[in-house]
Amino acid sequence: DVKVTQSSRYLVKRTGEKVFLECVQDMDHENMFWYRQDPGLGLRLIYFSYDVKMKEKGDIPEGYSVSREKKERFSLILESASTNQTSMYLCASAPGTTVQADTQYFGPGTRLTVL
Amino acid sequence: AQRVTQPEKLLSVFKGAPVELKCNYSYSGSPELFWYVQYSRQRLQLLLRHISRESIKGFTADLNKGETSFHLKKPFAQEEDSAMYYCALSRGYQKVTFGTGTKLQVIP
Q: What CA–CA distance (Å, rounded) separates B20 from B6?
C-alpha cells in the first residue's frame, strides 16, 4: 500500500516567512508532485520532479521552489510567504512505468494559512 | 492548449437516481483520462482511468473522442458516493491537468 506523508496537516505562518513543506513517499516512485488545491480552481501543478535533483516547473511556480535530494523526499519552499499563498497543498507520487501518466498517489494535504 | 472542463460545481441527486458527472477536454494528441475522487476527510485517490476500462464502485466512464468527453456515470447513486470528483487529462510524461471538480451530493 503506497504511503505518501506530509509533515504537517495544518500550518500558520506570517507574511514574509520562509516556509518548508515536506513530503515523503515509501514506494520508490520516480515522480513526485506538488499541487495547490483551491475551491473553484481545482488542483494546479506547482512543481514536478521526475528524478533526484531533477525538477520541472508546473503551471504556477511563481513564489515557490522545490528540492529533491533523496528519491523519497520532495520539499516545497515558499521563499517569502504571502497571503495569496494561503491554500491546501497536496503532494503526490507516481511510478515512472509509462511515458504518459501513471496513477498518482496523494498525501493527506497541508492546509497553510499565511497571516 | 490542454484543458479539462467540468461545468458543474455541484450536482445534487437523490439516492437511487442515475448520476452523470460531465467532463470535456481539449487536447491535440491521443488523450489519456482519469477520474479522481476525494471523500470527506480522506485523501484524493484514483477512481478509474479510461485505458483500463474498469468499473469501480459501479462507476463507468467512456471516452468519446468525437465529443471530446469523458463523463462519469453510475446508474443508481448511493449516499456513500457523496464526494468531490475531479476529471484529469494526461498531457505527456506524467504531467496531468485537473479539472475544477464537481461536488456530488446524494440526498437520502
A: 11
Sheet holding A4-6, edge to edge: A4-6, A19-25, A73-78, A64-70
Q: Do B9 and A40 make contact, defined as CB atoms within 8 angstroms?
A: yes
For A16-62, the pLDDT digits (tens) are: 999 999 999 999 999 999 999 999 999 999 999 999 999 999 999 99
Q: Is A84 helix (H, G, I), strand (E, B) or coil?
A: helix
CB–CB of B39/B18 below 8 Å? no
Mean pLDDT score, B12-16: 97
Question: Which of A56, A99, A106 faces B43 most closely, judged by CB atoms?
Answer: A106
Spatial contact of A45 and A60, defined as CB atoms under 8 Å apart: yes
Pick from A31, A24, A21: nearest CA to A5: A24
Return d(Cα B67, Cα B28) in angstroms, integer: 13
Q: Which residue bears the cell 494559512? A: A113
Nearest to B29 by CA among B95, B73, B99: B95
SS3 A73: strand
Distance CA B90, CA A80 (A): 32
Are B91 and B33 in contact by the 8 Å Cβ rule? The answer is no
Cβ distance A107 to B43 less than 8 Å, yes or no, reads yes
